[in-house]
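Residues pack. One example:


***
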Amino acid sequence: MRAQARKLFPIAVAIAALALAQRPVSERARMRVEREVRHELVMLPYYSVFDNFSYKVEGGQVTLYGQVTRPTLKSDAEQAVRGIEGVEKIVNNIEVLPLSPNDDRIRLAVYRAVFGAAGLDRYGLAAVPSIHIIVKNGNVTLEGVVSNEGDKNLAGIKANGVSGAFSVTNNLRLEK
């Protein structure tokens, strides 16, 4: 009997470990991790209007998405999230945008066009603006949140008016 118990003990330990690893995370704990991830990302020193972060929290895993203009910002984001209690695994799917003087020129022109427009200027006043301008190979994408449909449309029109931009994708969402 004792020999059989010794054989079964490692199996029981493995089953218990698996059960603990797969236990569901409470909704409250998930929301806390989401708040902390957002806080850590927006507090990164080189995070700007030309970068965009998004993320998904599933159990103890955080998946990072978005686009950044600096390669170091990708690794900084991962390091910042790694220190959050409850985060066990990080999948870093952040894209580093290619270095391009033309893209830099378009970024600046779109910034001036969007945040220089009457009514949209208020979105640029925050420490982290709610409108983000992503430029990749001459293609512009607007990401973020605006107050109403009119602001969303105006931002798209202003971005479309920038010379040298091949296309504009307006992914701005309305705040709830």
User: Anything to note?
Assistant: The beta strands are 52-58, 61-68, 89-92, 95-96, 131-136, 139-146, 167-174.
